[in-house]
Write the structure tokens for this entry.
Amino acid sequence: MIAAVIPIALTLFAIGVLLNLYRLAKGPDITDRILALDTLMINSIALIVLADIQMQLGIIFEAALLIALMGFVGTVAMTKYLLRGDVIE
Amino acid sequence: MKHLAYWLPRPLFSLFLAVLWLFLMNTVSIAHILLGLVLGVAIPFITQGFWPEQARAGHPLLVLRYVRAFLWDLLCSNLVVARRILGRTRHLQPGFVLYPVELDDEFAITVLASTISLTPGTVSTHYDAAQHTLLIHVLHLEDEEVLIQQIKTRYERPLQEMFQ
Amino acid sequence: MTTTEIPFLLELVIAFFLLIGALVALLGSIGLARLPDFYTRLHAPTKASTLGVGCTLLGSLLYFSFINEGISVQEGLITLFLFVTAPVSAHMMAKAALHRRVRCVRRTRNVPWEGDES
């Protein structure tokens, strides 16, 4: 049953990624684009984990964790830049 | 005792870091326990200059009860937000609410703001340290007073019990 | 290793978590795409996507805990990390938007800068 569910879940996440890309391209303000990138990061973690189950590897958590870390740091750095015009004070 | 407090400014945080290291490595070997302990001692010692204020941990039972209530609200709020997202967006009535914070502890305020962000249709947007107010954006604002009372009784009171 | 070794009940639970997680996360992305202004858009990903990915990771945790015959805690760590960072990044983005005075829907109540502009 899991083998049947994973492609469905992957499809749903892929649709989610497409919607995020739509917001990333359209987003009237730059904060919308940052939000879209943040959501894209969260969705890509799920995609990685699902692909991991699909391929029976069990070794790419490091990648997922790195994307989570980088996504968070990137979001905070971008908002910090918008707030202060500088990333490191 | 003075030496111990000097070398171990945050014992709980050190323990947390050591356990976190073991989880990250996903093994429990002697070498990794030692490395985790070294990191647990070194990191708080080096970084203590950046965060002088001391965060206190609450009573474990109260923390558990808070986490349970929080997880339940997380599920409920997701159902509510899901209905709002899928329904007609024209009927949404978004709004800002100024919420008066009664907590003193900085860590407690952080937890409160995070909880507000993750639960029913609210996102905390700005904390004013001078006025002790939290600006909250609400997805669908029906009654300000009811919302403020709800947050007060559900989240702020338990946090107050926990940290005082 | 084939998936047939997993007991039926556990398989059901894992499939449930994966499916629900994907649905909830998709909901967050739909909200991001169709809500009217930035502040309302902020609500969808912070709640839905975090919970959705949390569910997916929980399913993966159960699956690999069974396959590898040992609890794999790393998914738990990622979930915890996401739950801790989601409100922080939402708060930062909202702050940036307030700072830039990003336009919000006209029917929004109590807009903070309404008093001192125009």
Q: What stands out?
A: The CA atoms of residues 10 and 78 of chain A lie 29 Å apart. Chain A has a mean pLDDT of 85. Chain A touches chain C through 50 residues (CB under 8 Å). DSSP finds three helices and no strands in chain A.
